[in-house]
Amino acid sequence: MKKNILIIDDETNARAGLKRVLEHLDCNVVEAASGSDGIDAFRKNKIDLVISDLRMPGADGMSVLEALQKEAPETPVVLITAYGSGEAAKKALAKGAYDFISKPFDIDTIELVVQRALKLLDLKSENESLKSIVGEKKALSLIVGNSPPVKQLFQIIKQVAPTKSNVLIEGESGTGKELIANAIHNLSPRHNKPFIPVHCASFQENLLESELFGHEKGAFTGAIARRLGRFELADKGTLFLDEVSTIPLSIQVKLLRVLQERVFERVGGTETIETNVRIVAATNTSLEKLIEEGKFREDLYYRLNVVSLKVPPLRARPEDIKLLIKHFLEKFNRETGKNIIVSPFAEEILESYAWPGNVRELQNTIESLVVLCQGHEITPRDLPQHILGATNKKTIKTTDEEFPDFDNMTLPEIEKWMILRKLEKVKTKSDVAKQLGISRRNLYRRLNEYGVM
Predict the structure, then answer these.
(1) Fold of 142-312
(2) 3-state secondary structure 30-86
(3) Which CATH number applies to 4-127?
(4) Nearest to 282 by CA among 369, 185, 215
(5) N or C: which end of the chain has fewer CB atoms below 10 A?
(6) Which among 354, 342, 425, 423 is positioned nearest to 388, based on CA atoms?
(7) What architecture is the 316-450 domain classified under in CATH?
(8) What is the pLDDT of residues 184-233, one digit of tens each?
């Protein structure tokens, strides 16, 4: 893509000469005969590089440089003058000029400076693109999954993150709503500012008000000093309100005012404080139902629910369970210094479980299994009874019988059940062997023993 270069010079011949050189370099050229016209031209066009004379009537080259440093500091500015001196060059470079060239100049010098400046722009653009890709991967790395619901979730997060809109995240407990809020923050223009979480259900009414808005010294018993609230701490960043459904009606009124007017007062104070925060709220309860019951303000709901994001429960994306097991196994192996693996049979049982506590329950289960495992492998015998019991209640057919009672089975019997079940679900025996972590020869030997070859 051609670069756009702005030439600012009050001499027509000087502009014409520069234009010929720049067009030879395959650049688009925009011309201006004065500093003020040059600044206007910069605002009206997408300019990549500015070349300006230093001495001009009215707004001179230094004025142009100062204006562009405020408006677009990333745009390189090259200053040219017949009155060049060491002091003028030092002053221009100190104020942020990319380079300084004295008249009379030769074509080679202009070409060299321009090519160097444009190459730097390309490198910066490539660097920003790479940083964006890396930042996106990092922001989403803690949300583990490759299922269609998770891919759709990633897409919505990437769409909503760059905006200023408030977001309401809806999902069951343990689905990772705070991770999603964090990802939205980290992919937003506010990523270098604070991300402040507030778990609303953990505070009593009077304490929640102080937690959100802060308080002045002496505002209530025990207020021995001024305390900044979460809105002040999150200024220019993101405030995450978890379990927003538990906020009392009296505080909902104050929260609504902040969202509407962007101002509040500390508890016990009279000073009106301006705030610039983005609100990301989360709930595991239907706010619409609470509105019908008179427990949640409808106007606040619409202020929070500018963009709605629904998080699927783990049972709605069972294909992600294996990835999550691997993720948490690596995490807790690293933390404990162990090298535990999960046997294919135990993994199959874990994948069959409904996980009512969602990802949090799975995480806690894997952590417990790693910590308590005395060998190097987690087997069905190591799994919690409630998982085995819940799985036993399912009516999953195998070639011989329904889901068995693992407690009363030997390990070879459990292996047989698992192999036969896998054989029903997978197309080829090679894939069965691969998924179970055994050789094909071993699989064929066992199938012969079972009489199903």
Answers:
(1) Rossmann fold (3.40.50)
(2) EEECCHHHHHHHHHHCCCCEEEEECCCCCCCHHHHHHHHHHHCCCCCEEEEECCCCH
(3) 3.40.50.2300
(4) 185
(5) N
(6) 354
(7) Orthogonal Bundle (1.10)
(8) 999 999 998 999 999 999 998 889 999 999 999 988 888 889 899 999 99
